[in-house]
Amino acid sequence: MEEPLPVRPEWTDLPDLASRRFGGTVMWATDELFAEKENLVNPWRPAHRAETFGPKGQVYDGWETRRRRAPGDDHAIVRLGLGGVVSGVIVDTAFFKGNYPPFVSVAAVSVPGYPSAEELRGADWEVLVDHAPAAGDVENFFPVASPRRSTHVRLTQHPDGGVARLRVHGDPVPDPALLDPRSLDLAALENGARVTGCSNRFYSSPNNLFSPGLAAHQAEGWETARRRDDGNDWVTVALAGAGLVRFAELDTSNLKGNAPGWAAVSGRLDDGEWAPLLPRTRLQPDTRHRFALTEGPEVTEARLDIYPDGGLARLRLHGELTKRGHESVTARFAETTA
Ligand SMILES: NC(=O)NC(NC(N)=O)C(=O)[O-]
């Protein structure tokens, strides 16, 4: 009998706010003698080669502290790449088998501006995961129910050990003071957009479509499995707020043998109907296509259809927030920051 596939909690589909891809960084740790704290936020999966010894011991892909000989615990402070509301954290102890922490805690805080690690150490931390038992060589999933926007998190290993990755999944909440409502990418996660549906996530997450910068290689975009039916693949995204889309960028960079043949973009109106923004258009492989759109209606959500399958590196929908859209962005920040 085949082993059933492990079921991942739904919140793991949300973007990892701590990821280095968004600019997350590990600012400080009590110790990192065996393995560097920076590995905690690497976006790729942890790897391991047994019996690879450096001058300090076995080489691990993660953050590993020495065996404590004094009372206390080890801590690391992470500045999130995107401030947001956290729905769950993964403490991934991949390959840490005899040296994982038996218990972990995660706390979060919201501090405006650019606090130093020293300033953060004295902050008023909200506990998200309290002294929870952790297992070795596995992703430890911890759902979180905090309505507040967080900017930094603190991981504690009780008392010491190694963690390969810390993933902090949630919804980005942008600071409206730092957005220009007259000109922005309405589909960017960092502006508060959110993936609402997707036909196929086989090779990579649709969140990648709406991530900052260019995709360095195929795995940094969204790629679907080969379809063997008559349908087509698609993604829907709730925009940063209600807005007008003026330009679309459909980037097939790095998709050479698997770029879609055609794509279309539509926008959702208040009555729930979909209006075309970009009609079905032929695409070239490995190309940043830019399209100026004809003056369209106010939309709150966008849908990308690709024909028949493949993927895209990025989808950018440049435009402006309407008054209503800007008000909703401002309200969300106020509600989650108060
Ligand atoms: N063999 C080990 O992994 N030992 C330990 N860690 C490293 N990195 O060597 C340890 O005891 O914590």
Automatic annotation (TrEMBL):
It catalyses: allantoate + H2O = (S)-ureidoglycolate + urea. Gene3D superfamilies: Galactose-binding domain-like (2.60.120.260). Residues 23-172, 192-321 form the Allantoicase domain. Transmembrane segments: none annotated. GO terms for biological process: allantoin catabolic process; purine nucleobase metabolic process. Keywords: Hydrolase, Purine metabolism. The keyword Hydrolase applies. Pathway: Nitrogen metabolism; (S)-allantoin degradation; (S)-ureidoglycolate from allantoate (aminidohydrolase route): step 1/1. GO terms for molecular function: allantoicase activity. Its EC number is 3.5.3.4. InterPro entries: Allantoicase, Allantoicase_dom, Galactose-bd-like_sf. Belongs to the allantoicase family. This is Probable allantoicase. It comes from Amycolatopsis panacis. The gene is alc.
